[in-house]
């Protein structure tokens, strides 16, 4: 009876686990679609414009490559910088032109297709160090060779590709995806991990809990993809803001976020060392309330720095918190007579405070001047 009961409970738990997994998958799917809506609308607008120009403006009955160039140039990539779009356009147009020219010379068939692809791959790899450039050039060149000549002649498709490329570039500048939304989302993700990690370090020092410090270290070791993602989205947003009349006014804000990203990146590196030292320090079972208080104040400054990215009215709050912290980082006053292992943690907080003050907009020399001298 007990075995059947245990089996029934296990089966119920498995069903519950599958139901939860399905719900999570559905939420993630919905989130992906929602976040992709600006890109979808941008691509649809560009496709409509490219089709209209090539079909009704130039009289091309089936402007296939005008549409495919537009879609492939814009895509769903996180990196929506105009330079990346331009690189994709150049690669695709190169493939179309080479395909048209070589098909005119050697005709169509399997060996001609292989010859064209070989030529496109060689030229693509010679022109650009980016492997995707050659691939972007090869796909439309294969279409050109395999499809019969259009009514307007062999280079009609090259003209269609040019139309699609120009439309893609114009749409990138005039109807950009919201470049700040993805940057803000990536910034929140990084600061969320930093706040959680700092909370774990505080717990470790306040309660002599090595497991909490180890948890913080585990979280901090996974921050590099978050840093890279925020950097990519900010680079993309800044590049779009430079050329887009609608987003240009946000350029100073985006550049401030770049400064904050630099400070947050340095902070994660410092905090990994602090978490590692804290885990070793509290193995003796002794709490360090003074150090916990300093890290807690640091956490408050980091939390405010993250919130300032979403709420301009909070500007200056993080700097005020971090300024007060920097003035307290005196080992002789906070940890009189403490062993060198404890003092080492405090000394690690000093450059971290300077980097975060720099991220808040304070000059680095002014930030260093706030630190008490160390005998």
UniProtKB/TrEMBL annotation:
The chain crosses the membrane at residues 37-58, 88-106. Residues 50-171 form the Integral membrane bound transporter domain. The keyword Cell membrane does not apply. It comes from the Bacteria. Its main location: membrane. It is a multi-pass membrane protein. The keyword Transmembrane helix applies. It is found in: Membrane. Keywords: Membrane, Transmembrane, Transmembrane helix. Pfam families: FUSC_2. This is FUSC family protein. It comes from Protaetiibacter mangrovi.
